[in-house]
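Comment on both lines for my students:
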Amino acid sequence: MVYVLLIVFGGAMVLIAAIIPTPLPTTSADGVLPRYSSVRLPANYAEQFVQYATVQRIDGTIRHIYINPEAIEAIQNGSRRLPNHTVIVIEGFDALQDTAGKYVVNDLGQFETGAPFEMLHVLEKRDDWAAADFVSENRIGQWNFGSFDTDTGGYFDENMSACFHCHNATDRTDFLYSAPLLSRFIQTQQVQFLACNLPDRIAC
């Protein structure tokens, strides 16, 4: 199991992630599911969270993955699974291209980031979700998903059902594709880099 490796590493990081006060969605009187989930976008996540991985794909997309430091601390203190209130933020970019249309790379051979995606994705783990917190009837463990406008931080109109269907295949790693990267980050304290030779969101 991947999370057997996530035990007792390094010093604890004690930062508290503030949350943008976006209004929570509710179900209507006729029981219709809300348009947006109750997941929130953490304010200043790039400064307060820990980046543990960068994933670049052959189609010229780059994703930086962040996690709240309390989740890492729980693993370092012996938890074998990510704890309640774990929050993961994924920001995406198109790779920078030169005038010939080739991807620009740095000294390490990694794509240089260009324009950001118009949305940010957030995964939040809680044991007290209610049906009204989800935009779909789909469930994977204790996780819920949210999509947010990169520029404004407001809710981004996107089909979250696809997130549940995709991550459903990763039940052995607490429904996270990046679990091995997180494990290696905790062991090494180095941001992990993965070059995937597959496009879009196909599992590497």
Helices lie at 45-48, 69-76, 161-167, 179-188. The two ends are 18 Å apart (CA to CA). The chain is about 15% helix and 25% strand.
